[in-house]
Amino acid sequence: MVVSCLVWYTLFLKRWLTQTPRFSLTGSVSSYEDSSSISVSSLSGLSSSLLEGGTIPSGQCHLDRLSASQRHFILHSVMEFLDIDSKLGCAVVCKEWRSLSRQPSLWRHIILDKRRISSKAITVVSSANLMILIDKSINNSFNLPRELDQFLRTVSSWCLELQTLKLSRIKPQTKRRPGETKEVYQKRTRGILDDGIESLLAASQNNLMIVKITSCQQLLTKKSYLKIAQYCPCLNILKLDDCAIRTEVIRSLAKGCKQLTSLQIVPDAKRDGNKNMTNSNLHFIGSTWYQLKLSLSIGGKNFSKSGLLSVVENCQLLQILELSRAQKVNEDAAKKMCRVGLKELHTFLFTNTIVTPQAILHLYVSCPQLKSIRVYLHLSDVYPGRDNANQYREKFDDAVSELQRLKEHPGLGALLQVRADID
Question: Which UniProt keywords are present, listed alphabetically (predicted)?
């Protein structure tokens, strides 16, 4: 990882020097922040060419022409292309690299996906800060449940300009300790990332524009979601997918994050059965986030046509609407939705939600901006439970075939996508 970073730096440095043999900096420059007189556009062009596999022209490379500020500027531009793992690796190269790798402008995006808390990690103590270096050869693992939380708290001091936070499929260690019961194990791992997330949110505050959290199980509790409402008033995009969302969280988010243009709240069906997405909450969402424009994704079978109509009527600018694991949408529901809204809608997604052919036809005719209708169904959506699933297979296939035949309708074939699974 470090060797790769060094190669990047060497190639980029040589490319820069051979194309721009002389630099002219105005005034006294002593730090990276003061080196703005160097052409950013030319640097961007060089980096793009290098990323695309361009060759380095022949010529003599004179390293002594670079001042410290010029070297810092080039190195910073290289580090902008690196992921979190590589940036952490840069910190162990030398003092100069460590200082540059912690520039807030390099930590505008925190993206952690498929991290597993298990029994291996590399920890390095540097300048009184604990840094957890992620070794990809050991499945992106952390040593102890608290180490990932410590990692988040450590990098929060560098995330003053954080704009994007994405956490996806972060899991606790796969095995319980010897003699440990399931209840004790869940209690031990519950909410272990809450403090780290709070540190990140508190550090970034008004800069944070995008938060996406997906399938983090019990590692995050409602405390983290309430902190989003507290620290992120300028948030534009919020995704909480397969998370344990309670009514208290929904209402706090509605009061604290009033500038949202995209909202995805699909509760964890396995844990709470989507019971918390009620008509009352949908009325609250519609009346508070009426400015939603990009997309809205809601899920659960505990809200009815009344709650759905409230959202559609209030969010008149909505372009993308997704119903996930929701109640069946028939022609009557489609007519009422089209009567009160959906004039700007261009994409309607039915994820694990039954929709009748008549409803799809009405949406196609009544939504002037509609460009895509996507339906994803599973056998369990139509016939819940696994008992005697085979005897319902034929009925399920017939229902899917009815939807597929809609593609023969003039104009609708280009818009409609249907996917069905039985496994």
Answer: Signal
